[in-house]
Each structure stands twice: as C-alpha cells, then as structure tokens.
Design a protein that fits this description.
Structural class: alpha/beta
Order of helices and strands: EHEEHEHEEEHEEHEEHEHEEHE
Shape: globular
Length: 295
C-alpha cells in the first residue's frame, strides 16, 4: 500500500514565500527544488510542496486538492466572507498562527484630507468582502470600488476618495501622498486545513507536523540559561530567572558552597535580567539560543 503524503500549499512568491520555506526547513523537512519549480517532494518526510498564488491556496485546500496551506489571515478572511455571500461551503480551519508576514488592512486618505466622513464616499480596495463587512457592522453606506492592484493611486486618478489596502511599514502610502486613517483588520501568516473527509493516516501526519511547528515556535520564544549560584542565594537566583518553571540544579565538582543552575526561559533574557541575576549572587551567567524543542 502506498504511503500517505501531505500536500502543503505555500505562496510561490511574495512576502510569505521564503518564511514558509524556512519554517518547513526548521521543522526538519527538506525539499529538492529548483528555482522555478512549482511542485516538489520532500526527501525525508511524506509531504509534497505546491507553490501557488496566495488567493488560490484557500480554494485548493477547501476542495481537498491540498491538505494544508500557509496563507495570510487577510486572504483566509476574504475568501471565507466571499463563500458565505455566495452560500458556498468553506470547510477550512485556522490551525495555528505562524507569526510572520504581519500587516494590517487599513483605510487611507490623501494627506491633505481632514474631518474624513466615510458615509457616501467611494472606497477602492482588493478586499471588498472584508471592507463591506466592516462597513455593514458600523452602518456606513459607502461605495466599494474593486481594484486588483495599484490601489494607492485611486484618489489621484479620482477613482475613489479613500483606499482600503494592506499596510506593513506605511512607506508606500507616504510615497503616494496618503495617510493612514484607521486599521480595520490585522493579519499574519496562518496554517489552514480542510475540516472534512481527512483520512486518519493524514491526520497523523498533520499532528506530527504541528508538533514540529510548535517546537520551532517555542524555541524561538525561549532561551537556555546556565549559571553558578551560591547555595545560600539559590532561592533568590531562581526567582530572578524569567519564565522558568523548575530549573535543574547540578552540583559543582570540588565546590561545596555553589551549584550550577540550568533553565529554559520562556521570556526574553535582557541585559537587565542578567544584571538582576548577578545582583542576586549568580556568576558565570551564559544565555544560549534554542534550536529545537519537543514537549
């Protein structure tokens, strides 16, 4: 019997493409892939990788052509509202937030505009369903102008009074004489899956991948700290270690009044933290990054 394989869809180009590949690499999954290849197989994990347009990823996962997808929350939300408006099934689940590709969907107006009232205005966007849902919730009657690109020039061309577009740094808005008015939706990369008709053998593979992603994320958020502490100051030193539940205490050979303390810190270890540990009596303080973790 042929072994089950996961089909994972990621963005073929754009801001989520490289971070998605890097995440899979850090999960220990290797792919032999040429630069322009859109489909490839893993050499050490039962998974196939498909590089697609981000707008297509939710559709293909929803139809069962792919098992998992890495996509922006903004696209996931827009496609969900689109399916709802057309009374079409959208059997997708947001499995885990991945933390990269953060941005916001914001309203923006020309810098010289003041006392902006959205009622009756024309708003250009490539996210019409998300924008319309936001307007409906606030009882605002505005005309949504759908554009697929170059939305920031809509006011200059007098196509619209306001734009609703993704913003990361705000540099594109500034370069086009616009200022951010209000954020209507915040986004980041997420992992999605289909919620129905998933074979048990694929469920097992999805669980394996999720454990690895969780380990990568925990490693990113944690540091390994090692230090020496006088026995009489041990409780003060332990209390000064951030986010550590139960440090490991190790005797030091030939030293009776000190012990070694090892701990995984679930919080950032700042210079101030190390200074506090020093003040509590610690010495030989060493902070190391963690590459992998598995509970």
């Amino acid at each position: 019997m042929e072994q089950a394989r996961l089909r994972i869809a990621i963005q073929k180009s754009g801001r989520l493409a490289e971070p998605s590949l890097d995440l899979l690499k850090r999960c220990g999954i290797r792919f032999n892939r040429s630069k322009d290849q859109l489909f490839c197989q893993s050499t050490n994990f039962p998974a196939d990788l498909l590089m697609l347009r981000d707008d297509d990823i939710p559709e293909l996962v929803n139809e069962g052509a792919c098992d998992l997808g890495v996509v922006g929350l903004n696209v996931f939300q827009e496609k969900g509202l689109e399916h709802k408006a057309r009374h079409r099934p959208y059997d997708l689940e947001r499995l885990v937030d991945l933390g990269f590709g953060t941005c916001r969907l914001s309203l923006a107006v020309p810098k010289g505009a003041s006392d902006v009232v959205l009622q009756g205005k024309k708003i250009a966007t490539s996210y019409p369903e998300t924008l319309q849902d936001w307007l409906n919730q606030r009882g605002i009657d505005a005309t949504v102008v759908i554009m697929s690109g170059a939305i920031e020039i809509a006011p200059r061309l007098q196509i619209a009074d306001v734009i609703c577009d993704l913003v990361s740094t705000g540099e594109t808005l500034a370069a086009n004489g616009l200022r951010e008015l209000e954020t209507i939706f915040t986004s980041q990369s997420i992992l999605i899956r289909r919620t129905r008709d998933v074979p048990p053998e694929k469920e097992e593979l999805i669980d394996r991948l999720l454990r690895r992603i969780n380990g990568v994320q925990k490693a990113d958020e944690s540091k390994y700290i090692m230090l020496h502490s006088p026995i009489e100051a041990l409780e003060k030193v332990k209390a000064a270690i951030p986010g550590a539940e139960s440090p490991t205490i190790v005797p030091l050979q030939g030293v009776s009044d000190k012990v070694a303390v090892h701990a995984v810190c679930n919080e950032t270890v700042f210079w101030e933290t190390m200074e506090n540990l020093k003040a509590a009596g610690a010495s030989a303080i060493l902070v190391l990054p963690i590459e992998k973790m598995l509970d």
